[in-house]
Design brief:
This protein is of the alpha/beta class. Helices cover 39% and strands 19% of the residues. It has 14 helices and eleven strands. Strands 1, 2, 3, 4, 5, 6, 7, 8, 9, 10 and 11 form an eleven-stranded mixed beta sheet that branches. Helix 7 links the parallel strand 7 and strand 8. The radius of gyration is 20 Å and the shape is globular.
């Protein structure tokens, strides 16, 4: 698979907005693929489109647990969450994976999950835990939304790449940045939240006024931004892209190396580490799940070291379990930000919709 397709696949759940999709995959047989039920040996996972696991790892779980796993993919993260909320009284599955900290309050406030504390929860790194009093969701992975830069462009123009939010509004970087729409894209929303965390409730609008005046370009979703507008990506090079700065992920540079053919000796892109916002994805046992016991077994599995070790190279995210294995390429080309912006999910809940509305009026009109 080409670098472009691999990168698109890894980012669907993390921000690529697509038309609604409902597909079934996994290893369930025709006889039991109609859905889970009490006593059923099929457990159904509802997810955004970037769910992925190695076949042998999933096969080991199915053999040990006795459950067959069926996966229903429902588009990008926002679409999947909204669809799950609309069907919560008669859910399409037993477990939901892929709600992140930017949308967590929406899921919890709408009663999407029931309480369950999976085995291994005590091994989740403390900074990623949430809802610890009710245990309705379990952290599964994490990643950083950050501005990526095209190394070749900055070398050619003898220009130092930006390293902070402040840098992005400087004249030297005018007309260089492309970002995603905060109303339609998860990385776009994460970038907005990062600026709100950096500049405060009252300061972020003024920052965006400066960013707009400095020529920021806004597109609907990650794939367009990264694969069509960003000059540093494999897809962007083919498309003749002219923006050397893009809002993407800290794991994008290692992906550019891992899936390139031939592989470069160094990553062609870098990360402006002072622009990062920490994203955490959760899974939970759906309210009214027909196969709650199977769902619990699947959640237990997602916190095992086997699954957590397997996850980075399949979904290009970092594990949340202590002592889980991080690929060498991630460490070398896409290390996590040392001091990313973060925001309490409760604060996001209180402000998200109004901030997005204000951002839309300020930036898009």
């Amino acid at each position: 698979m080409s670098t472009t397709k691999k990168l698109a696949a890894m980012a669907v759940g993390l921000g690529l907005v697509t038309l609604p999709v409902l597909s079934a995959c996994g290893s369930s047989s025709d006889s039991d693929s109609a859905g889970s039920g009490a006593g059923s040996k099929t457990v159904t996972l509802v997810s955004h489109d970037s769910w992925a696991v190695s076949k042998n790892v999933l096969a080991d779980f199915e053999k040990q647990s006795g459950y067959k796993v069926r996966v229903l993919k429902s588009g990008d993260a926002g679409q999947a969450v909204n669809k799950a909320i609309l069907t919560k009284d008669n859910p399409q599955g037993d477990v939901f994976f892929g709600v992140d900290n930017t949308l967590l309050s929406r899921a919890l406030d709408n009663g999407l999950f029931q309480s369950y504390e999976p085995k291994g929860s005590d091994l989740v790194m403390p900074e990623y835990r949430a809802d610890e009093d009710k245990h309705r969701v379990t952290p599964i992975d994490t990643g950083d939304i950050c501005v990526n830069y095209d190394k070749a462009y900055f070398s050619k123009h003898k220009l130092t790449p930006p390293s902070s939010f402040d840098d992005l509004v400087k004249p030297a970087y005018k007309n260089l940045l492309v970002t995603e729409n905060a109303a339609t894209s998860s990385p776009g929303l994460g970038f907005l939240l990062g600026t709100a965390a950096q500049y405060g409730d009252d300061g972020w609008p003024d920052y965006w006024k400066k960013l707009k005046a400095n020529g920021v370009k806004v597109v609907d979703g990650w794939e367009q931004a990264y694969n069509e507008e960003f000059s540093g990506s494999a897809g962007g090079k083919k498309a003749g892209a002219d923006r050397p700065l893009v809002v993407s992920y800290a794991s994008s540079p290692p992906a550019e190396v891992i899936f390139a053919d031939p592989k470069p000796s160094t990553a062609p892109t870098g990360v402006a580490t002072g622009t990062c916002f920490r994203q955490v994805e959760y899974a939970g046992l759906l309210s009214n799940a027909k196969n709650a016991e199977g769902g619990k077994a699947l959640l237990d599995f997602m916190l095992t070291k086997t699954f957590q070790d397997d996850m980075p190279m399949n979904m290009f995210v970092y594990p949340v379990r202590e002592a889980a294995q991080v690929p060498e390429e991630f460490v070398k080309y896409g290390p996590q930000a040392k001091d990313p912006e973060t925001m309490d999910p409760a604060k996001i809940a209180d402000n998200r919709d109004q901030w997005v509305k204000s951002w839309t009026s300020l930036v898009l009109k």
